[in-house]
Task: structure prediction
Amino acid sequence: MAASFVRHLAPTLLPDPKRTVIRPFLPGDPDPFRVEGKPRGDRIVERTLAMPDAAVEDLVTVIIDGLGARHREIPALLLRRFDEVAGELKLDAGISDHRKMLIGGYFSAEYSFEAAALFNPSIVPHPDQGDCPDGAIRFVLSLRGIGEGHLSSVTFRTGTWGPDDDDLVIDTPSRQGVPPVIEEPDPELVRQIGAKALVQLNCRDAREPSETVLFPVIESQNRGIEDLRLVQFAEEDGHKTYIGTYTAVSAQAARQEVLQTDDFRLFHMHPVEGPVAPGKGMAMFPRKIGGRFAALFRHDNENLWYGTSDTPLAWADPVRIMTPEYPWEFVQIGNCGSPIEIDEGWLVITHGVGIVRSYCIGAALLDRDDPTKVLGRLPEPMIQPDGETWDGYVPNVVYSCGGLVRGRTLLLPYALADDMTSFATASLDDLVAAMR
Result:
């Protein structure tokens, strides 16, 4: 069910197991079977080096022919993977390229990053609006994909909205998935949003955003990168960049991290510090307020909080601004992405958790100059699960990680049952009028 002013659009994005990426694979030994001085990787290399040249070349041909239909530049990818493991395994750089490629193949795996689910979208204007029709807007959509082992990654789509509000076109994604190359952060490339990045990821071979795949690459993310909330951030010098907040999940804990990109190819990832760090749901405002970065949080898993800081990476004293008020949000209230600046103030798409852990989508309005002041909120959900959308990976859930406004209309991509993604629009006039 939905509020009467909400229109649901036709496109639905479903998980596609055919979309894959090549990621690192380094098998180890169970504790009782570890061999001192000869780990499993060394034993695999030893067997590979013992193979005749002809057999090596035949196997490399099999790899290239098998993966070439879904991925570009397989030889270069395999050689790069060899370089990544060569130091750890103390490999001789003087061996033949065919043998390097075969070793690279043994330490790689093809991964279907959205085989199980494709959900929790956020949306921002595309960095290139050059080919956009008058009155329309090009956008980039980020999505959480779940693959083997319930591992969450970030994937992207592009599309065009407008000029009419019902005109929504999602571009067909590339069949190619480009893995990030892990690099030492280059100070010349890191925009000044705070401390040195944890890691620099370069999807340099991606020809457009749908080819970029961000899967876990560091220890803090080894169980997943969840719920990216993207915002196009306006810096004080007029430059626009993209900042995304997400939950990094490890085997030990979950924490907030921040990424930054200008082009959806080169990314820098940073840790968040302070009392909000172990929480979820952080979302940046699209510009500074009063000369300081501003963000919303749900670090107590119940209420909505607001904070400001000199850096987007350390938040000391957030204040609680909204608590559960209506039955559909009695368990929990939080944001569904970054606030959107409209004529009336800051529009915040919210989520509420109610009976039988059912997630609904609502909205609130914050004062433009003092976002701790709540000017209004919807007493009823804008979108809620109904008889057609309750079932899926996680039943009774509708959820979003951000919307987009063009003129006086909101475009809201949202997830159904932690399974798939749909879209809706709403008039800002009707939405604000429905608030109390």
Summary: The first strand starts at residue 6 and ends at 8. The first helix runs from residue 40 to 49. The mean pLDDT is 93.
